Amino acid sequence: MIAPMQIMPMQQRHVAEIAALEAAAFSAPWDEASIRAELDNPLALWLAAEDGAGAVLGYVGSQSCFEDTDILNVCVSPAARRRGIAEALMLELEARLAPRGVEKITLEVRSSNEPAIRLYEKLGYARVGLRKGYYEKPREDALILQKELTFDS
Ligand SMILES: CC(C)(COP(=O)(O)OP(=O)(O)OC[C@H]1O[C@@H](n2cnc3c(N)ncnc32)[C@H](O)[C@@H]1OP(=O)(O)O)[C@@H](O)C(=O)NCCC(=O)NCCS
Known about the structure:
By secondary structure, the protein is α+β, with helices and mostly antiparallel strands. It contains four helices and seven strands, in the order E-H-H-E-E-E-H-E-H-E-E. The chain has one domain: 3-Layer(aba) Sandwich (Aminopeptidase), CATH 3.40.630. It has helices at residues 15-25, 32-37, 85-97, 114-122, and strands at 5-9, 44-51, 56-65, 68-76, 104-110, 126-135, 140-148. The protein starts with a strand and ends in a 5-residue tail after the last strand. The structure holds coenzyme A. Residues 25, 74-76, 81-87, 109, 113-116, 118-119, 122 line the site of coenzyme A (COA).
């Protein structure tokens, strides 16, 4: 893992860098205004991983409704991948959601996105469904993955 790295709730100063990472990684990215609006969304929790100089290394976005949370996106800067940053972000998200009463986390992933699928399965997410042709640009099925949070997760 890169050191020193800090994971914290997304702040105003992170938004532009997160939008740039989002645009580089996804064919239907969240735009900067939509990401900024999440700062004022009481249902949202986005975390950012910063390096020692304050640059954004990665982020995870989520929205919760009572005991259910959806992960909206997870992304790590290409230069910082394979160093445990996504795993650390996901675990920190769980640690922050569990005390709020969240019991279940759900996410969708492109069926060809092997790195992300491996990440989620390593963290204990199980395949619970398939949405045929869910994604566009390019059209592709979505796997639906889910994790039940337990007291020791
Ligand atoms: C998927 C993504 C977030 C992983 O980020 P990362 O910081 O590189 O992942 P980590 O280093 O924390 O890896 C944790 C685990 O995920 C799996 N993994 C991550 N990248 C992998 C790869 N390229 N190939 C195979 N497994 C991979 C491994 O199981 C890894 O554990 P290990 O190192 O013990 O083998 C990153 O590749 C990314 O930003 N991709 C583009 C955006 C994206 O597709 N997001 C997911 C949308 S649903």
